[in-house]
Amino acid sequence: MAEMTAPVLVPSIEVIEQRIAPLRARLNAHPLYASVKTIEDVRVFMESHVFAVWDFMSLLKSLQRELTSVAVPWVPTKFAASRRFINEIVLGEESDMFHGRPASHFEIYLDAMERAGADTGPMRVVLARAASTPAAWQDALELAPTEARAFVRSTFRIITQGSVAAQAAAFTFGREDMIPDLFRGFIRELNAELAGHLSTFVWYLERHIEVDGEDHGPLSLRMVADLCGESPELWEEAAAAAEDAIRARLALWDCILASLPSVQASK
Q: Which of 134, 142, 144, 200 is deepest in the core (most CB within 10 A)?
């Protein structure tokens, strides 16, 4: 009788999704969502999470730089569907309409922080340093909570060292494809009294559930598939980047959970 051999998994989106399924399950069931009980907890959460909102824009802009033409003279790039998708994401993230005025989701988040009484100081120092001397923001990052520093550094490792396929996978599986489920967790657990004081924060969460939960998911998956093509090496790099992105988010959530005032008070 011929020896049975295990089937070879052809690199694909489905293979990546199988690999990250246990990590995603842990993330979707994370106790952080049900542990944010007071306005003080929300402030602690936002003071770390704002850095993930910010570094998302650098990951997005890196993809825009790679997938669209920003050089002069202009020439069309290879993946038409992906460049349209990325430009569409940039339009919404960088200049959405909020109460009749254009604003980036990051700026709206800062506004939400101020309305909630959260400290925006460390984030604003990083922004100021990045605007004046691009390399200096990394020193200013030392002002951020420890867990936020680790998360941002993991994102920038993908940006500076990863292939475009790896960046797309981190963007897709670590951000776009999972954000609706994560934010539904927060919306579900926020009690009505608390949500009433956080209208801008709730708007931010609901807006991402709306835009990321529609056609962005399928389009981001197509982008990963286009960029990986027939290369097993790129598929493997994309899968590893997806796993790393979710592990970084889990670590961020773990550290924020441990630092919540209501959690510390219960010890």
A: 144
Angle at 187 between CA 181 and CA 191, to 5 degrees: 150
The kind and range of the H/E element at 93 are: helix 80-95
DSSP β-bridge partners for residue 98: 101
Instruction: List, for residues 99-121, the tens digit of each pLDDT value.
Output: 999 999 999 999 999 999 999 99
Helix-helix angle 80-95:105-116, to 10 degrees: 30
Q: How far is CA 48 from the centre of its chain?
A: 13
Cβ-based neighbours of 38, under 8 Å, separated by 6 or more = 194, 261, 262
Q: What is the pTM of this model?
A: 0.90
For 199-209, the pLDDT digits (tens) are 888 888 888 77
| 224/239 Cα distance (integer angstroms) | 10
- Give the residues across from 96 on adjacent strands: 103
pLDDT in the model for residue 8: 45
Query: Is the distance from CB of 256 to CB of 49 less than 8 angstroms?
Result: yes
Q: What are phi and psi of 101, to 5 degrees?
A: -135, 150
Q: What is the model's pLDDT at position 191? A: 62
Q: Which of 99, 90, 50, 108 is nearest to 216 (CA)?
A: 90
Cα(229)–Cα(232) distance, rounded to whole angstroms? 8
